[in-house]
Amino acid sequence: MNFRTYLLRRTLHIIPVLFGLSILIFVVSRVIPGDPVRLALGLEATGEQVEQLRRQMGLDRPLVAQYFAYFAGAVRGDFGYSLRTHRNVAQDLLDFFPATLELTSVAMLISVVVGVPLGILAAVRKDQGPDHVSRIVALIGVALPRFWLAILLQLALAYQLRLLPTIGRGPAPPVHVTGLFLVDSLVALRLDAFWTSLKYLAMPAFALSVGTLAQVMRLIRAGMIEEMRRDYALAARSYGLPPNLIIYKYLLKNAFTATLTILGLSYGFLLGNAFLVEAVFAWPGLAFYGVDALRYKDFNGVIAVTIVIGAAYALVNLATDILYGYVDPRVRYE
Amino acid sequence: MAEIVATAGELRVTRTREWRKMWFRFRQSNLSLLGFGIIAAVILAAVFAPQLAPYPHHAGIFVDFDHALKAPSAYNWLGTDDAGRDILSRMLFGARISLILGLMVLIIAVAVGVPLGVVAGYWGGRAGDLIMRVTDVFLAVPPIALALAVTAALRPTLTNAMVAIAFAWWPWYTRLVYGQVLSLKEQQFVEASRGLGASRWRIAFREILPNAWSPIIVKVTLDMGFVILTSSGLSFLGLGAQPPTPEWGTMIAEGRDYLPGAWWAATFPGLAIFLTVLGFNLLGDGLRDVFDVEIEQWRAGN
């Protein structure tokens, strides 16, 4: 199978999954007991007004017809009317999604940039001090409730030491291009704005990254140890190549390839845990919006958030699989 | 013939020996023992909460504003919350809630996921394909996001949080068992019982499934921690257990309003979650070494 066929097949695979997900979430959200429309309009609304909004939203039609109407809208980027913000949900998503994207991406970046060197260190110093420390750090990192860690960080770094801001995302940079504050402030060539955004981002991103960081560290360690035992590593050593060259040029490349697919899956962890971390830091992201939508039974909001998270997750996995298929041609045939 | 057929007595001896061997292997790791110790302590705390708690009546509705938000002291080792309730007492009762919830979720997940995995793996065909495609859909979103969407359709209670988490959790067991069955069904003992004329049901559930239990047990142990983590997260968001239930996540959410002054109200319940999850992880790792199984642990959890 050549690379293009692999790419196409892998891309087509996510369509039925997302389609299934949309049905699943749609059915789940439509069995909501009580009347969300009445809840949204308040007690003063007359029966007639409630009926009118229901008709407007198409809620008087059969469920299957409702689904297809919704689906037809969703593929055109229309996710319906929000009972919470009284705007089109798509508009809300555009406002809230960049914050989550920025948070989860930076958390992923921290996990890799910190996790990989620590994993290498643990592998090189196997069964010595650094390895034991890394094992303990990994155990703690995976078991820590992210929202609790977030609160502890807030207590220590924001309340006690006053190093970092407690909540929020800080002021928006003067230019709005991507909605990612770090990128936008660089586009505007404003290093001060970049620094401010970074300060607001530091604690939430770190709290979110801890589990993934621990996983990356352990996977790189395991991968490196496995590679060190291979014949080619022995050969390279016997040629007298400098150890650093062997480690970074030959071993790490192979060890990292195995970690790659898992990074895609860890992105799911980050998205899931973003719900908790965003709640602690009042981070105005998708999860924050989603929880609010839940409280107000804004079902269009809930469906859209779930589908967007599913789509983001699927796309990241697709990207890592493509990258993996590119680096390691064997997986194309599986 | 007599030499081949072991008597019941001999079988029992070999079985005890098998257990001894496993316990011996388990003991080799200090971390496994630590996990065992932590979980034993959590179970004891849950069972004897009424006897151990200094103020057992503080677990539910109880208000004593004169003693609200008192710092840790000889009377209240871990301080009191905004209603003047002893945090240690509430944490002990919280162990009951977390353990029962974790068990219930995993019982449902195993009861639904395992048979589906066996059917998909052994029967295969169109039904098997359909089952695996459905698990793909469920696994397309992180469990906590799916559980949140389900709680939208239900009222926020502890039971509903349990239902929502179980709803998101069963596909992991279908996946696990599916893989196990696929590799087991090619083995000789399956071939043998097929040759003896055993029915499909018998082969699938009496011959194959018993051989797939050890990874399931290991995964259940590891998942106990992750389910507790997820449920406390839901409760923290106000979508699970509601006050005055002494659920750990709910307690953190309540205590958070009194930061940074009354730091103890939010920090100690979090410590309980952390230690419990750590304990189950260590115990699960230990069991994994004993049973010598490989499962995709990085996928477990939220």
Short description:
Chain A: It comes from Candidatus Segetimicrobium genomatis. With 334 residues, chain A is mainly α. Chain A has helices spanning 3-30, 36-41, 47-56, 63-75, 89-124, 129-143, 146-160, 181-187, 191-228, 231-238, 243-281, 286-295, 299-327.
Describe, in plain words, how this protein is organized in 3D.
- The complex is a heterodimer of chains A (334) and B (302).
- Chain A has 334 residues and is mostly helical.
- Chain A contains 13 helices and no strands.
- Chain A folds into two domains: 16-75, no CATH class; 89-333, MetI-like (MetI-like fold, Orthogonal Bundle).
- In chain A, helix 5 (89-124) crosses helix 12, helix 8 crosses helix 9 (191-228) and helix 11 (243-281) runs antiparallel to helix 13 (299-327).
- Chain A is globular, with a radius of gyration of 24 Å.
- Chain A starts with a helix and ends in a 7-residue tail after the last helix.
- Chain B has helices at residues 8-27, 30-47, 49-52, 87-123, 125-138, 143-153, 158-184, 188-195, 200-208, 213-236, 248-256, 264-291.
- In chain B, helix 2 (30-47) crosses helix 4 (87-123), helix 5 (125-138) packs across helix 7 and helix 10 runs antiparallel to helix 12 (264-291).
- The longest helix of chain B has 37 residues, at 87-123.
- Chain B starts with 7 loop residues before the first helix and ends in an 11-residue tail after the last helix.
- In chain B, 49% of the residues are buried.
